[in-house]
């Protein structure tokens, strides 16, 4: 009977508009939720078979709930360097636990990038989900895969520290006074005489270098004029027992002869020219630290050709330079290009730790919503592709920003009004059909 189908159509209208109201309510409630994707309801007519042309069987309406996942929200600046937003397509890969995904981790995809570091050093978002990344090797290499989750792991920065770097290159910019009288003895000059103090240098300068453990060590350079435009030079450690066999030798490291041109520039730097086992200072010398320091031997390169002058000025140092750094502590995280998460250390060094990948889908709107504003892959969404930032169709990761909800309040309030009217209209169908049935019952009386 057509009246009964009208009743059912009215009920289906109430049900469909109730679902629409629930979706709108969720949208409005999450207007300030980071990375939230608004939902919507599509209505489709249910068509019943018609038995004759003189009657009509109402089918009603069927609601289909969908989320506008592909519609991006606006990017809003944040004060935290670990707040990430995606400009373009793609999702952060996260997990509900800190296990590697290939070992039972629960993979999810999200646009909610408000990440912080938890007590165990893991990077988690406000929903407690663990961000995944490709680890970066010590040589800067990244092992990635566009389809395999086994190459990624939860990002963890616990125990990350800036490694010490031993000094490899030193520079000395100084002037040797050309008016200095030549040394004639006694005693006659011999290798390590300046280091031991047997002969007092005409000029001495010291600098700090770092050993392989990052400990500061002092080496000094002594200069002795022995002839017109000729100077003896020695490098030695202070204190002398810092180097192997230094006691009794003054900690001498290398020795040589510097000859100047008549314009005050260096003509040549040569070895000491004796049978002494002490190394020549003309190119590089090796520092063998004493065993008690625990440091490894290191080669130090010194370029005296470019840094020294012999002019009619007083002795003086313009500058000393030395590379190498002591150990450093982690002071911050910075997101570099291509999604590289880089650690900055107190010793001035930086090191890439992870590369944050993005997952893209052929049909992002087909993803199924899950806990914490995240999504799961479905047959409708298709398989994921994992790429680095700004590659393979993936968007760009922005640091210090968050993606706002894509909810438009004006649109939601408009939908709220139309849904309310549609619900009232559906209820009117039921009351009208009820009155018609009541009228039919009165016919029998």
Description of the molecule:
- The protein is of the alpha+beta class.
- The protein has 3 domains: 2-68 and 406-444, no CATH class; 81-159 and 353-391, no CATH class; 169-322, Flagellar hook protein FlgE (Tick-borne Encephalitis virus Glycoprotein, domain 1), CATH 2.60.98.
- The chain is built from 3 helices and 30 strands.
- It is rod-shaped, with a radius of gyration of 39 Å.
- The two termini are 21 Å apart.
- The model has no long low-confidence stretch (mean pLDDT 90).
Brief descriptors of the model:
445 residues, Tick-borne Encephalitis virus Glycoprotein, domain 1, 3 domains, six-stranded mixed sheet, 3 helices
Runs in which pLDDT lies below 50 for 5 or more consecutive residues are none
* Total strand segments: 30
Sheet/helix structural class: alpha+beta
CATH topology of the largest domain: Tick-borne Encephalitis virus Glycoprotein, domain 1
Name of the CATH homologous superfamily of the largest domain: Flagellar hook protein FlgE
CATH class label of the largest domain = Mainly Beta
Query: What is the total domain count?
Result: 3
What is the count of helical runs? Answer: 3
Return the average pLDDT rounded to an integer: 90
User: What portion of residues is helical?
Assistant: 10-25%
Distance linking N and C termini:
21 Å
Beta-strand content bin: 25-35%
Question: What is Rg?
Answer: 39 Å
Give the second-level CATH assignment, the architecture of the largest domain: Sandwich
Largest sheet: 9 strands, antiparallel
How would you describe the shape? rod-shaped
